[in-house]
Amino acid sequence: MKLSKKWLALCFVFAMATLSLTGCSSNSKGSDTASKEEGIKIGVLYSTTGPFSISEKPMLNATKLAIEEINAAGGIKGKKLIPVYEDYASDPAKATEKIKKLILQDKVVATIGTNSSASRLAVIPEVERNNSVLVYNTYYEGEKPSPNVIYTNTVPSQQIAEYMPWIVKNIGKRVMFVGSDYVFPVNSIKKAKAMLIQAGGEVVGEEYVPLGHTEFSSLINKIKQAKPDVVFSAIAGDSVVPFYKQYQQYGISAKEIPICSIATHEATVKGIGAAAAAGHYSSFDYFQVIDTPESKKFIEAYNKAFNDNTTVTNLAEGAYHGVYLLAKALEKTSDYDGKTLINAFKGLEIDSPQGKIKVDESNNHTWLQSRIARIKEDGTFEIVYSSKDLVKPEL
């Protein structure tokens, strides 16, 4: 009888354990099903620290704003977007780890984010390997495009092709090129030099500094020695701020040798200060001063939502309309397989803060305006040139 009681007790314990495990499994499965029913998971991968945080913080904010607006309007076919946020601290290796987690563990249907070309190129193998989707919202050099990436910002045909002839015509022919030493500046400058020569200009120098560089006295001395009419700058990230400050500090004025940048936006101008930034130029598809109802509404909503000393930039606007393009693509299909979702983007048109934009049907890039603006004495931009029509993204 003792033996029988022991066996009965063991059987009872085993039965309870089995029931418990079955219950856990059932709850977990039910939770996953509920999650799918309640919303659509998307990854958001931006940096709040590191050398690109000055650009990525506004992008993160704009992404949050767009998601909140879309959900408040009813979501996607009644389902809310469920963002899963990850911070990769401007580190490409960490970005790879984070996007792998987002895809495999969090089961996101797409990821909004990354910023530098180094971070984008680092995550693409994981995106492609797992048939996922990346919505990339930063201007870039237009090389090595991925079939799994939607590009919502400019390439050189949209940012530089009309910039170089304008520089030659309005400022001068002798151009010195400077940039941060990584993929985007190096490859963009290579294309810009060819465009300059085609426009009748002359290259008088080319210099690069390490990413995150903060001491520019040596570079500025080289600029003085070269005596260019203009400095074409692809110095990027947080380095933009000390470059402009020291440019003025070491005795070069914007009136004497203006900087024409492809990486200096409203957030960096805010860091530089109006005194050192005024008189220099930038080329982007979007500036805050664009006079459209959509832009005014976007800026007002952004400033109301975020009191964190950030400001709207072309990158933030690219992230904002990137989310809206993703939402429209998700509405077109109920199959969120990577290839199917990418196909849903093709030919999409939306009214964004900068105006009507569309996704090219063949290369996953967005048709955008080309604009050039001068920084005024109060630190705001004044648009001095706009393309007549949307410019095709040529790779």
UniProtKB/TrEMBL annotation:
The leader peptide range reads 1-22
Supply the alphabetized keyword list: Signal
Q: Which SUPFAM superfamilies match?
A: Periplasmic binding protein-like I (SSF53822)
Q: Does the keyword Endoplasmic reticulum apply?
A: no
Protein origin, superkingdom = Bacteria
| UniProt-listed InterPro entries | AmiC_PBP1 (IPR039570), Leu_Ile_Val-bd (IPR000709), Peripla_BP_I (IPR028082)
Name assigned to this protein:
Aliphatic amidase expression-regulating protein
Originating species: Sporomusa silvacetica DSM 10669
Q: Provide the gene name from the record.
A: amiC_4
